[in-house]
Give the backbone structure.
Amino acid sequence: MSERSRELRDRILHLAEQYFEEEFRAQPFFPGQSAVPVAGKVLDAADLRNLIDASLDCWLTTGRFAAQFERQLARFLDVRGATLVNSGSSANLLAFSALTSPRLGDRALRPGDEVITVAAGFPTTVNPIVQNRCVPVFIDITLPNYQADVSQLDAALSDRTRAIMIAHTLGNPYDLDRVADFAKRHNLWLIEDSCDALGATFKGKKVGTFGDLATISFYPAHHITMGEGGAVVTNSPLLKTLVESFRDWGRDCWCEPGKDNTCGKRFDWQLGDLPCGYDHKYTYSHIGYNLKLTDMQAAIGLSQLEKLPGFIAARRKNFQHLYDGLKPLEDRLLLPESTPDAEPSWFGFPIGVREDAPFDRNRLVRELESHKIATRLLFGGNLTRQPAYKDVDFRAIGDLKNSDFVMRNVFWIGLYPGLTEAMLDYTVDTIRAFAQANSSVQPAR
């Protein structure tokens, strides 16, 4: 880069910071008029600076920012490797698909193998199981922590069980001691879907580091954002190589974009039924995809990662603010609890309307939405009742009664770092006023 180019670049980046401060100033909050979002991105001038810095490279695909982000994310989680992808859902697909590789020998997942998961969750935790022609085995959750009911693991086990794939719901870890020990005793793969739980810990150890593979999402609603984006993390060099192969068209070559002959024998391989010396860059060992992200996305993630500890602390503080404010309503509302030995990195604040409450979930949700307080249901509720799974081959353990409770009675509200204390107070006041006004009305079931 010439001195003139460097000077112009510095001026552009400085102006970008000034532009952000001018254009994206914090707006005042007016109760009842301003929105209280359930989630959202929290950006600053450094994020815009990094975005434009990456765009000035005109590289566009995965590059220097992505490589640096992967190293720093792995360092944050204390794992050996992180692989960036274009979404958390893609991360789940790649993590699971990697376990179908023939390179894993007898441990490779095959069609018809069973995979233990939970019924009350997000579809793309389960979809990779179905997409790879394996069979989900649904266990229930426990209330009010909304995590896998580990007492059902033994009942879920069969001679076809080969893996476990479960998410840490809303940033609250499940009992990783029990699940990881069960997986180890029965020689099962364990995939931690940590898309909602970046920075959460169990017995002082970060989630995403207990299993064979873990996944993370960088969608704007999550703990840090790239706009779109995700990652697969692992301590296994072999699994990392397999994930990257499935991500990069299924190719056998592991060269970075723009690089050639990393292996030193690009035209000397003999693989499959290809002629000897067939270009390794065009040799495919898996049925893969193209699920990379751009360097501009990674550049934002890199500056976001520096703010992650503060974001996590804010989420925990906001959780406690909502919990304390709603505690007087515990006779009507089921408030969330963290899993024993866990320190959640809260994604949202789940609320269950008790069966004997004088109102139902739908009425409370409509009240909040009418006051511009955004709500979300707890993902798919009981996934076995979703139309997408009507013709899917699965097993369910027991009656999944708590998953049905989630489907009928549970929703969640926001606690992300972009919410102010005034917004949280307004949310609490609105719920308390509704509960007071409906204290003697019979529930409409």
Observations:
- The mean pLDDT is 96.
- The two ends are 68 Å apart (CA to CA).
- The longest helix spans residues 295-326.
